[in-house]
Amino acid sequence: MTRQPNTSLRYGKINVYTCQTCRRDIVTIDIDDGVTPFMVTCPECGNEAFSHCYEVNQQLRPQWEWFRPTEDQLVELTREELAAIQANNAAPVTITEDDAVLCNREHLEKGGLFLRSVMPRPSAPSAPGPGPEAGRTA
Ligand SMILES: [Zn+2]
Fold it and tell me: 72-99 burial string, b = 16+ CB within 10 Å, else e?
């Protein structure tokens, strides 16, 4: 009866952003609850990539994930963001790191998620860890 806010029900959902310039598909997954933007910057060419609003094949394998950073991660990703902007622009970045962190914190407080490369996860059968016998002494 009450309508769900759009900050829920997206946990674990796959989305695709398609770049309008190079047509690259950016496959993302939401690993935390929160809101994601309609548009992201294409990591390939730096132009606009638009959301398919989760109306995509949910079996796609994501390369990027939307997550909710801790305070430390927030500061770190803000630094990386500024460095990336600096690297891609001839003009110097005019925003200070403190201002950028404040801006990102506000985004986070409004329920906004942040994008990062998918972390390697042990989904594939990996090398077996120490079994119960590992501690056995000869
Ligand atoms: Zn592109």
Answer: eebbebbeebbeeeeeeeeeeeeeeeee
